[in-house]
Design a protein that fits this description.
about 60 residues; about 0% strand; 4 helices; mainly alpha
Length: about 60
């Protein structure tokens, strides 16, 4: 499991991540309750319903 610091480092360079790295980042964020909360609130804050739904669907625990 990635630490919050490792997740934050990847988030900070999100524009340069490969698709594989982005997938790893999302999975790591979903596995970490605090990071998941930040990810979901960020999607809502951006008024990005599609991203919010994508995150929820990627997390098997919410379905």
């Amino acid at each position: 499991m990635m630490t919050v610091e490792q997740i934050q480092e990847m988030v900070d360079r999100k524009d340069t991540l490969s698709p594989e790295e982005k997938h790893v980042l999302v999975k790591a964020m979903l596995a970490n309750p605090k990071a998941k909360e930040i990810l979901l609130s960020g999607a809502l804050a951006q008024d990005n319903l599609e991203l919010f739904i994508e995150i929820m669907l990627a997390d098997e625990n919410t379905i």
